[in-house]
Request: fold
Amino acid sequence: MKNEIERLDRVLEHRLRLAIAVLLTRYERLSFSRLKELTDETDGNLGANLRKLEDEGYVLVSKEFVDRKPVSWYAITSSGRRALKAHVEVLGRMIAQTGKPARD
Amino acid sequence: MTDDGQIREDLNYVRGVLRRSEGVDNPASIYFLWAVLSFFGYAILDFEPDKTGIYWAFAGPIGGVLSAVLGSRAARRLGQVSDRKGWVETLHWAGMMVGVLLVIPLVATGRLAPDDIPRVILLILALTYWSAGLRDDRRFLPLGAVMAGLYLFTIYARVPYLWTITATVLSMSLAAAGILGVARGRRVAE
Reply:
């Protein structure tokens, strides 16, 4: 178990960043406002965590106008996808050792 | 510090976020568009049946392209773009159109009477709507049932203006599905 913990991706250990990465593998692009709506986070917290993912090279940001309003779009990079896959595999092994996650 | 309890909590949080991202309905404008196109497309059978083919030759592809544009615009406005969902939608509805086109050889070889084409199309619509309801937008489930009911109605009913009645029920059902999505306050990206 201890070995597995060390294999976890430190950036994706944060649940908000993990949720963002998972969302971005499901959808090609998500806007900042949609991410805010889905995660129910403040602008500041969401922005800081997105920046962390961006700095790590896990997500890419692009800006464009939709209906004359500026929109920031986020997409996962191939290295972000690889990191998430590896992180989830470690989590899967950890869960297999300790039991299934609690259901809602 | 990562421990078992924390992992469970985090995964439940991620699952909750993912669940919130699902269940995005198609924009109501697509339902209204097809309500209008279908009304004229079926009512025309009572008044100018010879022009039905030419009507759908234009209305079908134009409706398909407009639906794709409306869906794409709605996704961008919502801030949630999924190429995969776009492809699944395209393949689903294009599959229906191919199904409709494949009825032509039945008529050309005399195995199906031309008058029965709209009935077969209603059956294809019923199956396509039903599978769309199972796959994605639940509003298509009752629509599939309505189409199946209309299919039977057009076989057994002996009433004047059969196709105008069918067109009215069909388009009102589509419009109701669009209105229902808005009224329920669900995320209809309009």
About this structure: Chain B has a mean pLDDT of 91. Chain B touches chain A at residues 2, 4, 7-18, 20-21, 76-84 (CB under 8 Å).
